[in-house]
Amino acid sequence: MGVQYCDFKDVDMDEIDAVVVGSGFAGGVMARELAERGGARVLVIEKRPHIGGNMYDEADEAGILVHRYGPHIFHTNDKRAFDYVRRFTEWRDYQHEVLADWYGTYLPVPFNKNSMEIAFGEEKAARLTEKLIDTFGDERKVTITELREQDDPELSEIADFVYKNVFLYYTQKQWGLTPEEVDPSVTARVPVFISRDNRYFQDAYQGMPLHGYTPLFERMLDHENIQVCLGVEAESVFDLEFESDEEDAPLTVINIKDRPFEGPIVYTGPLDELFLSRFGRLPYRSLDFAYETHDAEHVLPCGTVNFTVTEDYTRITEFKYLTGQESDKTTIMKEYSHSYDDPKKQIPYYAIINAENEAHYGRYRALTSALPNFHPLGRLAEYRYYNMDVIIGRALALADELVG
Ligand code: FAD
Ligand code: UDP
């Protein structure tokens, strides 16, 4: 059948039981679950000209499949999430590897026993590794924060090296902050790994959709009960009513096409923007992507190279490693991080997690607590640093709640 695209002006809201804003994994899974498990007639409203959220991929001019909103590698320990996405596409086994470009020498990231040998030489690395094993155990992951807290001079030497050569400059580029200034959970994503395992992730289930993410979303949203309106911003079609004119007065009704909509509304966009940023804009980091196509089979030694001590971009990804595509050309993508200043032209990619921003977000969230049919879900609406699998898991859990 294919995805049923529609024009918002033609939609009869009397024939819609649930509204989903956004078509990334949060919106895509919810739409499918409400339609299939709940038997609801679902309207998906998506402001971009395509479905798939940040997972959207397409062939570029050279015919290379590229990700348009950052490189996305699927990895999870959540079998339910993996089984769910496996329904919609075949998968290829892919284990992501990342190297840090350290003044022209490559160090495996997460920093591990192999990186240690390259950085310190075999003999010294053996001694330092022994110290790490004695302190933390073998095959263990240690965060840079934890490592820097150690008093032992040899552990401090490792911590200083990794801090200066892997974390400091990359984090400054990515967040405009030092590693001490970002929430420890952010750098904890990439621990020091006392292992020879060079993979970026150790999750039980890892891979890439064989034909790309966009076909996965096309199949997920291909259901007789789902209609998708592209190019429509929720703010422009939702008419919000509040308990009073007070700034903090809770939301009581969402009208769509001049009538209160009483079915479930799953909202996966930025919550502050839905309320026209009445308490000030929530801070995010945005990204610019620069693509280059080369007449070569490969230009990088692995999927991603992080530039941890040089360059003004954070990392380069070569998509063919991720997708397994064969071609005598290859496309790479550099990522440049900057603050999110202009909602009209930029995309909010990363919530900046800290106590102040969470309290700020909490004020927006409180506006929604009196409206039982409104469900903020996803990386933006929940203002969290969630990977795809967590979003899929959270969407399935919300669907369990809503449709049993
Ligand atoms: P999104 O994918 O952002 O989808 C939200 C959708 O809502 C978008 O399509 C947006 O256009 C739409 N929308 C927003 N506001 C409105 C509105 N007002 N009206 C209508 N539509 C609206 N995760 C991994 O697991 N592995 C990775 O390798 C990985 N790499 C990443 C790389 C980068 C650079 C980034 C930024 C993220 C990465 N992630 C990765 C995380 C992943 O992108 C998120 O977990 C996932 O996108 C979350 O899905 P979502 O549906 O919550 O949000
Ligand atoms: N990080 C770093 N150097 C690296 C890799 C990661 O400093 O080589 C830090 C940086 O602060 C980054 C965070 O660890 O934002 C999380 O890295 P991850 O690769 O998980 O980021 P994402 O893929 O989500 O952008």
Automatic annotation (TrEMBL):
> What broad class of enzyme is this?
isomerase
Keyword set for this entry? FAD, Flavoprotein, Isomerase
- Please provide, in alphabetical order, the Gene Ontology terms of the cellular component aspect for this entry: cytosol
Name the cofactor(s) required for activity, per the record: FAD
Any idea which GO molecular function terms this record carries? flavin adenine dinucleotide binding; UDP-galactopyranose mutase activity
Does this entry carry the keyword Cell membrane? no
Q: Quote any Pfam family the record assigns.
A: GLF
Q: In the Enzyme Commission scheme, what number(s) does this protein have?
A: 5.4.99.9
Residues of the UDP-galactopyranose mutase C-terminal domain: 166-385
Record's NCBIfam families? UDP-GALP_mutase
Its family? Answer: Belongs to the UDP-galactopyranose/dTDP-fucopyranose mutase family.
> What name has this protein been given in UniProt?
UDP-galactopyranose mutase
Q: What is the lineage of its organism?
A: Bacteria, Bacillati, Actinomycetota, Coriobacteriia, Eggerthellales
* Name of the gene this protein is made from: glf
